[in-house]
Request: fold
Amino acid sequence: MRFAMIKFEKTVRYSKILSPLKNFEETLVEFEYRLDPLTGRNTTVIKGMLGYVQKFLRTDESILNSLVNSTRINCPFCPENLWSKTPMFTSDIVPEGRIKCGDALIVPNLLGHAERSVLAILSDKHHLKLNEISPKMLLDAFKCGLIYLKRLAEREPNERFPVFIINYLPPAGSSIMHPHMQILVRETPFFLTKLLIEKSEEYYQRFGRKYWEDLLKIERNGDRYLFSENNVEWLVPFAPLRGIAEVQAIVSGRSNLLELKEEELRGLTEGLAKILKFYHQESLLSFNTILISGPLDQHLDYFDVNLRVMARPGLQGIGFTDAWALPYFLWDGEAVEEPEKLAERIKKYL
Ligand SMILES: [Zn+2]
Reply:
């Protein structure tokens, strides 16, 4: 391999069972352990698991419809309530109270998850299917988010670690149905941001090269690479963080969100809308995405802004969740199918 400093390490182990599905014949079950090439974190790929969990990924349309209707009443983000029920910024940060750009509106969060925690409301529609979340909606929200970050950088330069997050629908952890994005900013980085920055720096010091650049050089010719759009490259990660249909995007040469150019924002939002359309095609309706940034006040030669998106279970009476003890407590990853197979399906769809 030309870039031998990046290793894609896999170990395969088996268990032997007498399977009731095969008339109690001896059957091998395969476990493939994959280490994330940057962090070394393990993800276990379990072949055939996708077929098993498929029933939890479907959505009961009648439950979805009744949830849409019941949450529509008094929704704080619907147009008739938006101006009276959402908080306003203090005038030192946003003199006009809220930030509007295109169809997106940014308001502070009532409770929040970080000392600077704001929301971008994506649309005046209370519910959107994943194929209805347009690149423009996402672009307006991202642009709005950057306006907020610029104001924050001028007035509170210590608040320098932002992350953009979308938790879409209750299976993805959202308490509000209405499509929205969260922008969380702290003085100290979130754990994953810190880990990625530290490991990227370690790699840079050890090999004198940027990990993200080396990764793309290898992946571009491989099975997991999806497409490139305006300097944003999309791929399925070798060792997904969590599991269902996880996709990653990397913006080369930009280490923080304030460095992103208009065309790169388009590359991110158009790419994300494409992946959401693919999820819709796979009958998925809930997802999480994170856009990770280095510190806003400096350029890091060894780090690139990157995004992750993954699907979550469907909406059903059983209330199944894939947020269980293994990822939560044991901090291990598990993938329900081989990342290369997922990449093949996405490419076929696109
Ligand atoms: Zn609403």
Remarks:
- The longest helix spans residues 135-155.
